[in-house]
Amino acid sequence: MSLNGAQVRCILTRAGAQFITPLTLSSLSGEKVYSELFSHTDKNYMDHIRLSREADLIVVAPASADILARMASGIADDLATTTLLASNKPILVVPAMNTLMWNNPATQRNINLLKNDSIHFVDPEEGNLACGEIGSGRMANIQEIVLKINSVLYKEKPLNGFKGLITSGPTQEPLDPVRFISNHSSGKQGHALALAAAALGADVTLVSGPTSLINPQGIETINIKTAEEMLNACIHSLPVDFAICCAAVSDWRPIKIQDQKIKKQSSKILDKSKTTIEITENPDILKSLAQLSPDKRPKLLVGFAAETENILEHAGQKLIDKGCDWIIANNVSLDSDTFGNDNNQVTFIELNSSGELEHEEWPKSSKNVVAQLLLKKISQTLVI
Ligand code: CTP
Fold it and tell me: Residue 51: pLDDT above 70?
């Protein structure tokens, strides 16, 4: 399976086979799917030893209450539990189950036992469950799992001791209690950056506008709505070693927020014949951070440039106008598929030592990979 270049082998338990077929898993992974501990036809009767030796990491996902209990008791009665017991590699468990099963003292006791045995976890989220109920127990999102995998696998944490600030998502600028000005930003790229920075050991503050994403585990997240709130939260989080302004900040806000819902019939700020809304410019957060005194300014300040045309020229000009160190140019034209999707195609731009703009096009890849490439560059620059 192409997981950032990783080779993935799947073990399918009997219960798992009720949800997904071996054929689906083998076509996704491009590998044989393993399920039998003892096979009369397969010569590799020592699969459990081989699979555990050859893997760099074992991920148990989705992990039921049953497999947690069996792992905690050291039971080895099928290929999955035998491979886990025979492993000397890191193990990452991603539970998914009904809320009451998750909250049951027996499950929590098993989790504590496993945590004491140095098993890694990505805890479940709140949301709609497969059983039809709503509550905690839903499997964590894939992005979070992938980044946790990276965090466990990266033995070195080059950004340990470094503090980072990341803005993400859109801002919402209210017009009245029910309406606002905003944009299509999903927050996926900003959240991926926060997780990638934390995976490299950075102490991260994520300042996020409203998105449908869950606040990432283990990362201090400040949820805001407006650009002014985002600026205040950013200033509050200083000093930091690096800051990445990835948020799609609304450039304008309505001059007056009406206390009550504006009625079609009796609008005070909407002139019905022209339907005009009076707006004013929002603070530019990236520029404000760039203009801080050297003791407060992030040592490395990175912006994103959302462009629909003349991408390199406009993005390069933004780097100069705003005074950041690097800018990541992003094509957000309608045919680019950037907003809301998992992939991104970006160009890295910086000023060289002679003060000229230089750029480097990065291949189209997932937002996680873009985040990892950028954080790697940041760590190479900060860690001398
Ligand atoms: N940005 C910001 N505060 C704003 C507007 C933008 O911090 N009020 C930051 C964004 O987070 C991004 C960079 O500035 O890092 C560029 O944002 P972008 O939306 O591409 O450009 P704008 O500055 O809004 O300019 P324009 O809308 O004219 O393209």
Answer: yes
For the entire predicted model, the pTM comes to: 0.80
- Domain containing 86 equals 10-140
Which ligand 1 atom is the nearest neighbour of the CA of 246? 11
> Quick check: is 10 catalytic?
no
| Ligand 1 close to Cβ of residue 282 (< 6 A) | yes
CATH number of domain containing 30: 3.40.50.1950
DSSP line for 5-48: TB---EE--TTGGGTS-HHHHHHHHSS-EE--SS-SS-S-TTHH
What's the confidence (pLDDT) of residue 44? 59
Within a domain: residue 102? yes
- Sequence-separated (6 or more) residues with CB below 8 Å from residue 239: 163, 295, 296, 298
217 and 255 assigned to the same domain: yes
Number of domains in the chain: 2
Each residue of 323-369: pLDDT tens digit?
Answer: 999 999 998 877 777 677 778 889 999 999 899 999 999 988 888 88
Task: Give the rounded distance of the alpha carbon of 287 from its chain centre.
Answer: 25
User: Same domain, yes or no, for 296 and 343?
Assistant: yes
